[in-house]
């Protein structure tokens, strides 16, 4: 009999005894410190920055406006709060209708969602928690873009709500982080994951397999270290190449070869086997099916990916 991998859905069902869904939100005016020039320019080499721009009509006037940790004022806060509400209402209603969702985690998803002045963050987080049937927040960010003040506030919220913070770990190797223009060190990620855990927060770590210059041993060492840092949940991604990125230029020149599906399956299965049983899985693969994808082709079809992952897992008695 196959054993079910412990998913984030399992975790939420166990905790809340009902269907809880994440509502992904994209707030205009947010960016990253390695896009705005604070620590680097151009963003990570694999990131197509335009793909994160808000497409909602009501925020066109925010074009060119970006917050950072030192911003003194935010003249668009009311528009951001309205954007948050309209997105939440539209997405949560759809999730209720299509999937029977009953409770929600508001997921601040695109860009770096602690990279703004504390008053702005507090207003957005408080507003999200005020919506009906919202049990908590999940906040995607970078370890170089959060302050102690924000962390302390999230820890306070966590006493009555379900608060998650999601850090992009990607790799524990600084030479890899330098090559992908990440803009911070592995030590910085470790420091803030440990600080978040010490504050009592739930932490999800994002890992990318197939980064430039890395072999399977390095990928697995990253997973092992992330588990040892005490993450509560994990997202696994294969690195794929999209147009209009620095990585696309490397790929076109022949300086980067994407990970094969066979190798990804091998690393993923080993990472899942070594994963502590209490660490839930939020994502097991990734891809995109449009003309922006350059390579690898196997990342185009998510259904095929999951089917092949389950074939590989079945051989060791697991299923996703």
Task: Output the keywords.
320 residues; alpha/beta; Transcription Regulator spoIIAA; seven-stranded parallel β-sheet; two-stranded parallel sheet; 11 strands; 38% helix
Write the layout of secondary structure elements.
Layout: E1 3-4, H1 8-16, E2 20-25, H2 77-99, E3 103-108, H3 118-130, E4 134-141, H4 148-157, E5 162-170, H5 174-179, H6 186-198, E6 202-209, H7 216-228, E7 233-238, E8 241-242, H8 246-253, H9 261-274, E9 280-283, E10 293-295, H10 302-314, E11 318-319
pLDDT below 50 for ≥5 consecutive residues: which ranges? Answer: 51-61
Q: In percent terms, what proportion of residues is strand?
A: 15-25%
**Morphology:** globular
Radius of gyration: 19 Å
What does this structure look like?
- The structure is a single chain.
- It contains ten helices and eleven strands.
- The protein has helices at 8-16, 77-99, 118-130, 148-157, 174-179, 186-198, 216-228, 246-253, 261-274, 302-314, and strands at residues 3-4, 20-25, 103-108, 134-141, 162-170, 202-209, 233-238, 241-242, 280-283, 293-295, 318-319.
- A seven-stranded parallel β-sheet has the order 2-3-4-5-6-7-9, sandwiched between helices. Strands 1-11 form a two-stranded parallel sheet. A two-stranded antiparallel sheet has the order 8-10.
- Strand 4, helix 4 (148-157) and strand 5 (162-170) form a beta-alpha-beta unit.
């Amino acid at each position: 009999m196959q054993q079910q991998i412990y998913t984030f859905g399992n975790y939420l069902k166990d905790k809340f005894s009902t269907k809880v869904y994440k509502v992904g939100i994209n707030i205009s005016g947010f960016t990253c410190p390695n896009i705005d020039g604070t620590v680097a320019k151009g963003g990570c080499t694999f990131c197509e920055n335009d793909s994160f721009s808000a497409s909602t009509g009501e925020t066109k006037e925010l074009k060119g406006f970006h917050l950072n940790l030192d911003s003194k004022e935010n003249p668009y806060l009311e528009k951001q709060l309205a954007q948050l509400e309209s997105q939440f209402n539209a997405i949560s209603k759809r999730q209720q209708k299509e999937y029977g969702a009953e409770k929600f985690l508001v997921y601040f998803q695109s860009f770096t969602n602690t990279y703004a002045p504390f008053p702005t963050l507090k207003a957005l987080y408080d507003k999200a928690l005020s919506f009906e049937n919202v049990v908590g927040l999940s906040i995607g960010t970078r370890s170089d873009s959060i302050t102690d003040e924000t962390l302390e506030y999230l820890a306070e919220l966590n006493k009555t709500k379900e608060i998650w913070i999601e850090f992009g770990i990607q790799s524990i190797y600084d030479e890899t982080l330098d090559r992908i223009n990440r803009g911070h060190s592995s030590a910085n990620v470790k420091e803030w994951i440990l600080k978040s855990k010490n504050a009592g927060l739930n932490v999800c770590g994002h890992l990318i397999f197939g980064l430039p210059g890395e072999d399977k041993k390095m990928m697995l060492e990253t997973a092992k270290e992330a588990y040892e840092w005490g993450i509560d949940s994990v997202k696994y991604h294969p690195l794929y190449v999209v147009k209009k990125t620095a990585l696309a230029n490397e790929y076109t020149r022949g300086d980067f070869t994407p990970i094969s599906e066979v190798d990804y399956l091998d690393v993923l299965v080993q990472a899942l086997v070594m994963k502590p049983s209490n660490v839930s899985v939020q994502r097991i693969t990734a891809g995109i099916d449009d003309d922006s994808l350059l390579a690898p082709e196997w990342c185009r079809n998510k259904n095929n990916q999951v089917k092949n992952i389950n074939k590989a897992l079945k051989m060791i008695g697991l299923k996703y």
